[in-house]
Design brief:
The complex is a heterotrimer of chains A (546), B (113) and C (289). Chain B has 113 residues and is an alpha+beta fold. Chain B has two domains: 43 residues, no CATH class; 58 residues, no CATH class. Chain B has three helices and seven strands, in the order βββαββαβαβ. Helix content of chain C is 36%, strand content 17%. Chain C is elongated. The chains are: A alpha/beta (546), B alpha+beta (113), C alpha/beta (289). Strand 7 of chain B pairs antiparallel with strand 7 of chain C, so a sheet runs across the interface.
Chain lengths: 546, 113, 289
Amino acid sequence: MLKIVNGQVYDPLNGVNGEVREIVIDHGMIVEPSPDQKISETINASGCVVMPGGIEIHSHIAGAKVNSARSMCPEDHYDHFKVSTAGIRSGTGYTVPSTFLTGYEYSRLGYTTAFEAAVPPLEARHAHEELEDTPLLDSGIYTLMGNNYMIMKVLSEQDEIGRRERLRDLVTWLLTSSKGYAVKVVNPGGVESWKWSQGSVDLDTRVPPFGIAPRKLLQELVEVIRELKLPHGLHLHANHLGEAGNFITTLETMRTLEGYPVHFTHLQFHSYGMTKKGGIRSAAREIAEYLNGHPEFTCDIGQIVFGPATTMTADSPMQFRLHQMTGNKWINSDVEMETGSGIVPMMYRPSVLFNAIQWCIGLELLLLIKNPWQIVLTTDHPNAGPFTSYPQIIRLLMDRDYRNSVLEQLHPKTVNYTHLRELDREYSLEEIAIVTRSAPARALGLSHKGRLGIGAEADVAIYRIQDDKEKMFAGPAYVLKGGKVVVRDGEVLQSFAGKRLIVEPDGAKTLLPDLARNFADYYSIELSNYAVQDEYLSRPEVIPCI
Amino acid sequence: MTVTVHEDVVCAFCGCLCDDLQVEVEDNKITKVSHVCTIGRNKLMHSQSGLASLRVNGKETNWEEALSEAAGILARAKAPLVYGLSSTTTEAISEAVALTELIGGTVDNPSSY
Amino acid sequence: MRHLSRYSAMSKGLYASEGRKGRKVVVIDVRPTPTSKTADLFLQVTPGQDFEIAHVLRCLIKNIPLEGLTETSQIGGVPLSQWRELAEMMKQCHYGVVMFGIGLTQSRGKDLNVEEINTLVSELNRYTRFYAIAMRGHGNVNGSNQVLVWQTGYPLAVNFQRGYPRFNPGEFSVVDMLTRQEVDAALIIATDPGAHLPQAAVRYLQSIPTIVLEPHENLTTDWANVVIPVAPAGVGAEGTFYRMDNVSLRLKKLVDFPVSSDREVLQSIKERVIQLKGDLQDKGENKPC
């Protein structure tokens, strides 16, 4: 048994806000302290805060597109490497680290769970293979469905009751075949439209080949997700990412899905107003105001970090636009019947007005959305910046003077298009604990994570209290994964595989017969070889649909 | 004698990885392969003959000696090369990379030339 | 071998229901081949002109004037008018794919040829959808690139001498290291360098201690110091392979072999090396350089 004593505990889900509490750990779980326990190791957390392990709700860390990005960007790796030591593997990479390094770097920040945000079912095996090599993290994948041929085909059917049932079976089959955790939609209809060399889509654009409008696709998917009682709602990357004036589409999408469990991801990229000249201005107020009245929705930010980034998404038309705008190198992929994807490396600069406004918008959302339980801190790693920048963002949230000092260094016109200078709010430690741990745990339906109460998993991060909050959160004194000390003073002590989190919703486990015929005719592999085999998940855990 | 028919078998020969082969096995012998190209059929039909024998410096040996000799060569080497990996599983490739890291060697595959 | 029938020219697609009839197939090669005989357009080119050809196609597609060239000027042994016809065909199609083979990397220009083809394909996306697929030879050469990339960041030519992955083709690539005689032992897995590598490289390989993991006798097992037979992947051992377009598949085990898989053999060797390294360090030998 292991005991953590003298630490100021932050456990927002249990209402513990910095009080000194003892935490006792046995067999990877937090247990009730009692006098007759045999304690083999005691951690003195005096002068430290004790928080649940961090939970990454949206990150691109494993699978086909991530690996293509690693391969495409050796220049990302040369100066960023880790030497192997006994039992700890070596690795390279800054914005797209190799798998072992990804696990270690998350762990070194006190993060213990992470979800890969966009996986085509056809390439799910690859994502799981990489996650097996991403140590010290419990992990899962979101399964892409927003531009899937079979989904659109079922949606085009006339019989409403039959259609709903068939969609439920299809979603279940896609989730279980890919061993996914949640339904992910990226630019609904927009990727398919681009594959037909057609323009970008709005909510009511009829998308070939079936003429399905994105609005209908979203409405029917959220209904099915609710019926299936999935632990995480629809994970949505809305239309028009990164375009001036897109907040109108974002708000319209929100209104369409009112009352349903939906997570709006990397919302910063979807909160742009338009200036008279067609540039972007902050629409964070409009978006925040709406969310403040709609507690059923959650979001993550996708905060810009100045420096290098590697953009990668299933949103292939957006990536093509970015490639043409920047002239930077570009990979594009067409995943048969399912989706597409693109990759473009980027550099965000404070001196570039567009980037400076983006940076402000992310922070404005974080400061203007009142209820921290609706927000998760992310950089949409590595799209807006690497996850290793989280400590810097935490400092920006907790330290207004620091924030304003950075704001001073941005393009001088930034203030004309943003509100950040007017915002005085500073996050408390409790709010930081919420947006990095407890809120994502709740949004993901993970009842044993993001908390430190009795029966919770013993994923724990212990940070020394320091005035400089960036330093404080960049180097935890201890990190525990499943009750084992895995990091001490920034050093990774041991390396082992985490659990893979999956769902088993109550729907069909086989593909509908007519769609199976389509599969046989048009997929490039055989149906029996499609589903991810059990061998790719060494430690699966089914999270119940309740 | 019972015949086992394996359906939707993946052909490991070339980068196409056709995964619709049908392979019949009788008494642990591959006896028939269908839905396959000529090369793929030959590879599968001949996969159980011409097997390499376990040997060290040309002499047949046992597993213990062969594995120890291999480990000894790699542990003593100052600049070992691990090469190939074009016709084996990713699971084996992973082991090869881990081994190369351990011996401080170089790992490469045929796509470098 | 089933590329044309199962995946490309002849396969019936959702939006190409006629199969071969509804498609245009163009073959560019230095000599007629069985594939070129089935093509709608075969352009027989002179060797070593790949970069120029791709470059001219890029110009034609972007309507950049080609000064000093007339319609009868030869580029790679083919008149400009024919390249113009091809450029139009590419620009006008609904959905195109360039499948390029290893020949592109073996002629003058090497990797630059591939880059030029990829740039051509990128630029075509301003007009239509176009993709490029590298035709990979051996079953899982892509898989070895994939694993190396996710574990080390680099697809090939990775060196661990400093304890972390370093990448430098030309320095850490097999032919270069062998011909410069920079390695002192070799472990060969599931490839036959005796059959494929240049002679100078093979000669040097023969002079250093070499271990081979291989199911069948081949040109390398002939002379290797240690030969360890293993069960062939997809026949006697299961596991994962990556198709040339990055889709991964799980291979089945079909029959029992009297020997282990190479994964298991490599694990055993690794364990023994860990043991030996410990012993050698205790004796003060094998100091890290």
